[in-house]
Design goal:
The chain is of the alpha/beta class. It has helices at about 5, 30-50, 70-80, 95-105, 135-150, 165-180, 205-210, 240-255, 280-290, 310-315, 330-340, 365-385, 390, 415-430, 480-490, 500-505, and strands at about 10, 15-20, 60-65, 85-90, 110-115, 120-130, 130-135, 160, 195, 255-260, 270, 275-280, 300, 320-325, 350, 355-360, 365, 400-405, 435, 445-450, 455-460, 465-475.
């Protein structure tokens, strides 16, 4: 069993920690020693997984632009070569590219140094094999090796510099050419004006190396240069400031479309020509429309906080099936894999956060692939005299929506949160106008009739943190406040377990 010292590094299916000094109260725990032990733990795990000796492994190493990237890269490369591993040193790379290299080159596994959208002082290790990203139990096994001081036999590995991003970009360009099949085949995006916002993360390549060579006008694109301080805004399609920035950039440039990535490009978002977000439910809707084109009647797996209008859009407008599952990108991906294994046609697993994994792309959550598919669809629609907005027109969106996040006061936060959900389930069953959703897989989701708020709420435990997020939507002006008032009758009795300040502020 992992001790508290090593458990602190486990963040779902990644390893994460503090890698730089400079934030008060945050002490560096991703030390050279810890990263070296983790890397050797991965080498042992991978050798067992591949049924090879460690000295016969080939491992690719990449990183996002964080300030700690070079230090941690050196730790990882040195640890791997010290036990005989052949290292493909990929330099600045997107996380999805660090999976794709396992498909295109002789490569047993990869290490990507990233902390996604987390603050500049954080970093982490993300691992892939040819089968995809590791699961939580695999991360525990790697950390257990590190905790126990397990080491492979000493060896003398080698390092080979590889510019795999060049090959990755060529693949995306080829996909656009073939899919659009324009009269000017090599320039299918000629006449298209697309603004790219990379947030100073790893995604600047998309403007310069994917879109521009295909004829797209990328003027007005911003924050393409990698900068681990992220001086302009957090690279995160869920961040309000980031989305406001790219929306304004699209309007200012009078562009046809805008795209935005998180730091390591495993998530993406888009903006229409009016400067309105194609994000969350709208992003899921477009991705679903694209995925179901070649899989009529297929099942779309989403996270738990998607709207009622989205379910109608997928099932009534698109003719598919909507399977609302748990938050967490590995959760939705693994559920899609499970459904396909059981014979259920499932072409897409997607979170409202922007993590989107398509069956045609190895169920890899790849923000660049997602926006590429959106751009292709926009180009195809333009040839028909239509736009993405036309595609989204039937989507019924909520009139009001809010998310409140309640900190859990108790040390055993998971048990406390589960107790709140259990009691709320009993409470909800006895309330007039409340209907508990029968197809919910996490927390509790309740729908309200018109007399009681005309909407729904979902209360759940955060995937990783001592937080209970509450999502509320309504199809009526003032409906969210009505639902919150009805729910406060229960929540006010939970003040020993939850910090209810967000509710008080909302009311």
């Amino acid at each position: 069993m992992l001790t508290k010292e090593w458990q602190q590094y486990k963040s779902g299916t990644d390893i994460r920690g503090v890698a730089c000094e400079g934030v008060p109260g945050e002490t560096v725990n991703l030390t050279d020693e810890a990263v070296t032990k983790m890397t050797k733990g991965f080498a042992l795990w991978l050798a067992d997984h591949e049924k090879k000796d460690v000295c016969n492994l080939t491992v690719a190493v990449g990183h996002d632009p964080r300030l700690s990237a070079e230090r941690l890269r050196a730790d990882v490369v040195n640890a791997l070569t010290s036990c005989g591993v052949h290292v493909l040193d990929c330099g600045l790379s997107s996380t999805p590219a660090m999976f794709m290299i396992t498909q295109d080159m002789e490569c047993d596994g990869t290490v990507q140094l990233t902390a996604s959208h987390h603050p500049w002082n954080r970093n982490g290790l993300k691992f892939f094999t040819r089968e995809g990203g590791l699961d939580g139990k695999d991360i525990e096994a790697i950390l257990l090796h590190a905790q126990n001081g397990d080491e492979p036999p000493a060896g003398k590995g080698t390092v080979e510099p590889v510019n795999y991003m060049k090959q990755y970009c060529a693949r995306l360009r080829d996909l656009i050419r073939k899919s659009v099949n324009a009269e000017d085949y090599d320039h299918p995006l000629k006449g298209f004006h697309i603004v790219v916002d990379a947030g100073n993360g790893a995604g600047g390549f998309y403007a310069n190396d994917v879109l521009a060579p295909l004829g797209a006008d990328i003027s007005g694109s911003q924050f393409l240069e990698p900068d681990g301080r992220f001086p302009n805004h957090i690279p995160n399609p869920e961040n309000e400031t980031a989305m406001k920035s790219v929306c304004e950039a699209v309007v200012k440039a009078k562009a046809d479309l805008g795209v935005i990535f998180d730091t390591d490009v495993d998530r993406g978002g888009a903006v229409d020509t009016k400067g309105e977000e194609i994000n969350r439910n709208r992003l899921v809707a477009i991705a679903s429309a694209i995925a179901l084109e070649n899989c009529p009647g297929g099942t779309i797996v989403t996270d738990s906080i998607t709207s009622s209008g989205l379910k109608e859009y997928i099932e009534k407008t698109l003719g598919g099936k909507h399977h609302r599952f748990k938050r967490g990108y590995r959760n939705v991906i693994n559920e899609a894999l499970r459904l396909n294994a059981e014979g259920v046609e499932c072409p897409l697993a997607i979170e409202t956060s922007g993590h989107a994994a398509m069956r045609e792309n190895y169920f890899l959550d790849d923000g660049a692939y997602l926006v590429t598919k959106i751009i292709i669809k926009a180009a195809q629609l333009r040839a028909q005299g239509k736009t993405l907005e036309d595609l989204l027109a039937p989507l019924r969106e909520p009139v009001e929506a809010i998310e409140l996040r309640f900190p859990i006061k108790k040390e055993d936060f998971r048990a406390a949160g589960e107790a709140v959900i259990s009691e709320l389930t009993k409470y909800a069953a006895a309330q007039d106008g409340w209907t508990i959703a029968p197809d919910n897989y996490e927390g509790i989701r309740v729908s309200f009739d018109k007399a009681h708020g005309d909407g729904w709420f979902l209360l759940r435990l955060s995937v990783h943190d001592p937080i209970m997020p509450l999502n509320v939507e309504s199809d009526t002006v003032g409906g969210v406040k009505t639902i919150l008032k009805e729910l406060s009758g229960f929540l006010n009795g939970c003040s020993d377990s939850l910090d209810l300040a967000p509710l008080e502020k909302a009311l």
